Amino acid sequence: MSKRSIPNVDWANQLESVIRQFVKEKLELIMREEIKNFLEIEQAGTPNMRNGYYQRNLDTQYGRIEGLLVPRDRKGEFQTQLFAPYQRHTGWLEEASSGCIKVA
């Protein structure tokens, strides 16, 4: 009986894909919590509310995360703290993974 194994290259690609998906899910979770906080605390008493999502790609040290769902509000005032409006490459993620997070 022969054993079937996943070639190292395929295994590495699958692992990278799983890591990118994990990072994407966690970034989206953080942004959902950010907009929830923004609307409930910072915009309390105003008629502002969620207005779906827009998609963007973000290059990280883990590869390109495609189709990242970024929440938006009706007034267009919400801005995630994870990255700047037109930023396409992360800086904080690399700092976090190396243990060198800078606090402003």
| Contiguous runs where pLDDT drops below 50 for at least 5 residues | 100-104
- Profile the largest sheet: 2 strands, antiparallel
| Helix proportion | 40-55%
Mean pLDDT: 84
From the spread of the alpha carbons, the general shape counts as elongated
Tell me the fraction of residues in β-strands, as a range: 15-25%
The count of strands amounts to 2
Order of helices and strands: HEEH
Instruction: Give the distance, in angstroms, between the N- and C-terminal Cα atoms.
Output: 60 Å
Q: What gyration radius follows from the Cα positions, in whole Å?
A: 18 Å
Task: Explain how this protein is built.
The protein has about 100 residues and is an alpha+beta fold. The protein has one domain (about 10-100). It contains 2 helices and 2 strands; from the N terminus they run αββα. It has helices at about 10-40, 90-100, and strands at about 50-60, 65-75. It is elongated. The model is unreliable at about 100-104 (pLDDT under 50).
Short description:
This is Mutator family transposase. The protein is built from 2 helices and 2 strands, in the order H-E-E-H.
List strands and helices in order, with pairings.
Layout: H1 8-42, E1 50-60, E2 63-73, H2 92-98
Antiparallel strand pairs: 1-2
Describe this protein with a few key phrases.
alpha+beta; two-stranded antiparallel sheet; 40% helix; elongated; transposase activity; DNA binding; Transposase_mutator; DNA-binding
